[in-house]
Amino acid sequence: MTTGIVYSPIFLEHKIGTHVESHTRLIAIMDFLKENGVLDDPNFKIIEPRKATIDQIKYVHEESLIKEVKEVSELAEKTGYIQNLDMDTSVSGKTYEASLYSVGGNLEAIDQILNGTIKNAFAAVRPPGHHSNSYKCSGFCIFNNVAIAAEYLFREKNFQRVAIIDWDCHHGNGTQDIFFNGSKSEHGELVMFNSHQDGRTLYPGSGFIGEIGSGKGVGKIINFPMPPRAADDVIEIYFDEIISPLLDEFKPEFILISAGFDTHHTDQLTYMGWTYQAPANYLKKIREKAKEYANDRILITLEGGYQVDKQAKAVYNCLRVLNNEDEKLIEEKPRISEDDLLNYINTKLVPALKEKLTPYWKCF
Ligand SMILES: [Zn+2]
User: What phi and psi, each to the nearest 5 degrees, are found at residue 16?
Assistant: First the structure.
């Protein structure tokens, strides 16, 4: 069985000048995959994206947001100047179209996973999505790719239980906001696991352990704010102590991952301490749960990551793990967290998070 890689040059057309969320991020990824044999390997297949329909975008976004992106894109096209949706979210003449393909690429990957053409997939798409909520585009994001993918599984593929794991260094506040009261569809249960640099030290300033959802979504939003400089060992504690028992209880039928690679210790926007093999090692653990409950179904969607050479290596590593080639990981020198930081995680953060979740889950 093969691993799909969603990619199209249309994603480069969301071209927004010297912005750090640059089209060169994708070029670096694809060049690295080519140089290292992934694109010539029959175990990997390029998935051509399709356009999502407006009705599908409306699964999570208000019509006014869609209209704004379309109109601002048209203005950029007409004037030849990049436009801005907010302080840090820019739009080119092709952003609207690229965004429809970015969502649609994820939906196409889901279709191919479900019809057995591929086993799992990595969507190397832009623009990213996890900061956009139902009514506002923010933080370099346009349409919320992963949230629409989840609703697509509920509404068009009749899935009952979907897990989203967001490992971008910034809190996935848009996705959390969309699903704070549970899935948007009548049926369908969604659980979202966030891990990110502590919001007191990084945009968007949210994602604390008390944010656990409400209504039918109560207890199903889980936030793990990591102190600056946290290394690879911290995410493993989160998985073993929180995610693993919760997934055993929830039994997801599909796992969606919002994958940012801005947790790397050299990333220019953040202050975390991960290596470029850390996401892949985390993914190995997630893969075991997907095997147990979800018939191996994993779709990874690209979010942030601003040290382009390190991001390319991290993506390559994740693809090898998706394809069960753990021996082919490219690794840098391991990094471990300071004792004080680990002590805080083990004696303060993890117990406090469990206490918040205890009323809603039997496993704690
Ligand atoms: Zn990020």
Answer: -120, 50
